[in-house]
Design goal:
The protein is of the alpha+beta class. The protein contains 4 helices and 10 strands. A 4-stranded mixed β-sheet has the order 1-2-4-3, covered by helices on one side. Strands 5-6-10-7 form a 4-stranded mixed β-sheet. Strands 8-9 form a two-stranded antiparallel sheet. The relative contact order is 0.20. The mean pLDDT is 97.
């Protein structure tokens, strides 16, 4: 099996991001973003997706966290897309339901080559500590666009904002893990088109 890794750097006037990923890792993450809650969520992706993730990001946090969060989503999407390569013999589709106490979320992903996001989540408050919950959507929009993936996210229930967000990120990690796995019965591209 080939090594499925990627190293992406992105520099703009708003952010500087350096990200490394190993899709066949051990769930180890090393994160430095200046956004503790986001780091907690990215750790969930890494641990539950069993992917190794090293990320250093500097952004214009004096303005707000929007650019940093969105650009991290973009770079993570680019890295996953690159690491998947030609997508030969992967499962392609992945899904997961994850509960946390009263909260339950479902994430379904298709590494289809067609970017799209359906995001349905309601939070009982606008912020988790200092983190704006609107940015969760921005993160996943950036990811879907640049991973060239169709992504459906549904927070099915919950009344604790932290729990809702955490179930989404955990389910996302689990869904990526399933979709990116090698399928021992698949010998080519998992598509009737012959290309993804």
């Amino acid at each position: 099996m080939s090594v499925r890794t990627a190293h992406i750097q992105r520099q703009t006037r708003e952010t500087q991001i350096d990200l490394e990923i190993n899709l066949d890792g051990n769930g180890v993450s090393k994160l430095k973003t200046g956004l503790p809650f986001l780091e907690h969520m990215l750790e969930q992706i890494s641990r539950h997706g069993m992917l190794d993730l090293t990320l250093e990001a500097q952004g214009d946090l004096s303005v707000d966290a929007h650019h940093t969060v969105e650009d991290i989503g973009i770079v993570l999407g680019q890295a996953v897309h690159q690491a998947l390569g030609d997508k030969q013999a992967i499962r392609r589709y992945g899904h997961a339901y994850v509960p946390l106490d009263e909260a339950l979320s479902r994430v379904v992903i298709d590494f289809s080559g067609r970017p799209g996001l359906e995001y349905n989540a309601q939070y009982p408050r606008a912020r988790i500590h200092e983190f704006d919950v609107d940015l969760v959507h921005e993160f996943f929009q950036g990811f879907a666009n640049h991973a060239m993936a169709t992504l459906h996210i549904d927070a099915l229930r919950g009344n604790n904002a932290h729990h809702i967000a955490e179930t989404i990120f955990k389910a996302f990690g689990r869904a990526i893990r399933m979709a990116a796995e090698n399928d021992p019965r698949e010998t080519g591209t998992p598509s009737t088109k012959g290309v993804l």
